[in-house]
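Predicting holo structure, adenosine monophosphate bound.
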Amino acid sequence: MESDGGKTIFEKIIDREIPAEILMEDERCIVIRDINPGAPIHVLIIPKRKIARLSEAQNSDILILGHLLLTAQQFAKRQGLGDGFRIVVNNGPHAGETVPHLHIHFLAGKPMIWPPC
Ligand code: AMP
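Done. Tokens:
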């Protein structure tokens, strides 16, 4: 897991310090392709203003949290994903969080099983 100090890898991508495949961007968030995909379509929806993880979000983050979900909806529409998609947030080490900068995993392109673990 990355340390909470300094810039996260996602802040470096947002600031164009390291490359990534950027699929969507607006003033609040960025959508990039995951470098290690777990499904044919696997992207990350990342707020530009860093929130370390969902458990540290504040009531004042309500607009950005809603915006991330609506961005997932918009991405699915643009990709024509009528068969469905899955969104996942890994919160903390037991959940598999490796980057301490909130992000939504968006997975699609194949049938998925449930439960996931
Ligand atoms: P998590 O384990 O939930 O914190 O998810 C972090 C995700 O970031 C993993 O799925 C990684 O494959 C992905 N990732 C790490 N570094 C990069 C990068 N430079 N570009 C794109 N995705 C990345």
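The helical segments are 9-14, 62-79.
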